[in-house]
Specification:
single chain, Rossmann fold, alpha/beta, about 210 residues, seven-stranded mixed beta sheet, about 35% helix, 7 helices
Length: about 210
């Protein structure tokens, strides 16, 4: 089984535990607020990638009650949890690497922490696909964990017990170059420490970017 498939399996197996563990999104509220502030309509079409149990979907729906949100995740149990709490959102079981098959265009794409499960090449392709799916002046939110490709590997998590998940790390400079090449203007870059339950610290990397007109 490929590393990506193992990670999807773990998220499906531990969907309920993940939903409980990451219900609190307060540490990312400033970045999410900025993302929402840049969306130039009160009735936006939003595409969310790797939506999980819908924790961030819920925040966007509260901010934009009349929004049209399409939210995808490859773990069926995550989608099931999300549908129960947000029945008016279009949740789909779908691979983020296949968004080029979605015909619609969007005002915004939310991509919160699905990059850690994509290789450098897949992450670059995803950013290009996001550009294609956005209207001009569309907004992209992108977050991951900063680090070298050589840091990738299987790790235990705070939600999956002894079952490991494969994590990829991405360099700030690499993502900046990919965003610029993909036709984006970077509005904001933020690095912030994330304190793991075992006492270790990882560095979260958050981009907010706007597609050039």
């Amino acid at each position: 089984m490929k590393n990506f498939d193992v990670s999807v399996l773990r998220f499906d197996q531990f969907a309920a535990e993940y939903a409980q563990r990451f219900m609190d999104t307060e540490s990312y509220s400033a970045s999410i607020d900025r993302f929402c502030d840049l969306i130039g309509t009160g009735k936006p079409k939003i595409l969310e990638l790797g939506c999980g149990p819908g924790n961030i979907t819920r925040l966007m729906k509260l901010r934009f009650p009349e929004s049209d949100i399409t939210a995808i995740d490859l773990a069926p149990n995550m989608i099931e949890i999300a549908r129960k709490q947000l029945p008016d959102v279009d949740f789909r079981v779908k691979d983020v690497r296949d968004i080029s098959t979605i015909p619609e265009k969007f005002n915004a794409v939310m991509c919160s922490f699905c990059l850690p499960f994509l290789s450098k090449a897949d992450a670059a392709q995803l950013i290009a696909d996001c550009s294609d799916r956005l209207f001009p002046e569309g907004v992209l939110y992108l977050s991951t964990m900063e680090g070298s490709e050589e840091d990738a590997g299987f790790e235990t998590t705070s939600f999956s017990g002894n079952s490991e998940v494969y994590f990829n790390y991405h360099r700030q400079a690499d993502l900046e170059n990919t965003l610029l090449t993909g036709g984006f203007v970077i509005d904001r870059v933020k690095l912030q420490d994330y304190h793991e339950t075992d006492g270790s610290i990882t560095t979260d990397l958050i981009f907010i970017a706007v597609k050039r007109n």
